[in-house]
Amino acid sequence: xxxxxxxxxxxxxxxxxxxxxxxxxxxxxxxxxxxxxxxxxxxxxxxxxxxxxxxxxxxxxxxxxxxxxxxxxxxxxxxxxxxxxxxxxxxxxxxxxxxxxxxxxxxxxxxxxxxxxxxxxxxxxxxxxxxxxxxxxxxxxxxxxxxxxxxxxxxxxxxxxxxxxxxxxxxxxxxxxxxxxxxxxxxxxxxxxxxxxxxxxxxxxxxxxxxxxxxxxxxxxxxxxxxxxxxxxxxxxxxxxxxxxxxxxxxxxxxxxxxxxxxxxxxxxxxxxxxxxxxxxxxxxxxxxxxxxxxxxxxxxxxxxxxxxxxxxxxxxxxxxxxxxxxxxxxxxxxxxxxxxxxxxxxxxxxxxxxxxxxxxxxxxxxxxxxxxxxxxxxxxxxxxxxxxxxxxxxxxxxxxxxxxxxxxxxxxxxxxxxxxxxxxxxxxxxxxxxxxxxxxxxxxxxxxxxxxxxxxxxxxxxxxxxxxxxxxxxxxxxxxxxxxxxxxxxxxxxxxxxxxxxxxxxxxxxxxxxxxxxx
Length: 520
Description:
The strands form four sheets. A five-stranded mixed beta barrel has the order 1-2-3-5-4.
């Protein structure tokens, strides 16, 4: 029987009070493995460090780690005489000692402004007993540095230094909130907020049997195709060879296994109309694979036999398969074939062929995206992902010589042929960021001044990923559409068919929310 809502609220409040005050994350009894995973020897910091380039946080090393070689990353909290430093991250602080004979490292430390983000590699050693700092969890040890590297240098005088005393006035702290969030108490507040949010969800779902329903975030599918440009340049078909001569053109193809019976002339005609309507292309070349390594179709008779054989072998084609090829501007050809590939999968599944198995989960990372592309309509270079994506390692110089050749540190996660997530490693160098925005993309950088100021404040190398939860659930549930896993899905036009939203608002509502609607 469900509790009264007021009683539910009281129970939730008591539950949160117990949890936030240090109660266990999971009630016993549970699986011992699960308990150790969540309540291990170091539950405060979990397993996050295992997925980063540092070996430990700045708040966890103790006398038990003496003799270990460790790698720490954090903000330079303090340094004195180029020999002594304190490194800080969200977990705490660790003292760093430089060797007397390492003058180069000492010089670099002296030149590093406070709050720069640095990396230190060295050996954990015990402090002299009279130098223990009992106020620090790491107060019994220090790191004898073997390597010191500045990953992100503060490039201007900061409006304030991160200290637990003599804090600036609130208006200044709010203006530079990205710095203010480095204060320990604010980080503690944010962690507590996160904990409370999690505990609320845990309570409502695990205790009261609530179901959490979220609004959708749609994602797109990522095509995967075979580049057959080299073969088409000398295939014998004049119309294809001529198309390949145009600047920026290429040829790509995919194979529909055993698709001859399912892909009819009516379907091919529809594909040709789609190509003309959406991509301004004459259409894909659709050819059938015969049993003697030859192709059959309108264009096939113009292809020399060696090119036909090479195309079939390159795509591992067999009798009864269909080869779908597009020749033209690379972006248009790829986009067209990507769409046709998904339509072909739908056609084959409707014919009873299993193309995308609901019983297995096949994950794939897509990487090495171009950083930029040229937009023919805008007649300018645009970002393929967003303007804040970092170039691939070793290709930063291309930003200043040939930006269209630069690849990005952008990545997509694909499950069973559909994109379920994507993200990138971000630019943390303000000089590079300004060059991308102003010199390459030709954008007005005035609105991003605050952002470049933040980058110049010792921003660490960072990145992120956003997962499409709705798309993931579609795959887990084995549904045919993302709308099958959303409580109140919208139509393709973005309308709610249940309520008729969006709709017009009254004049009073326009005034209340300061909205001005111009007549069309």
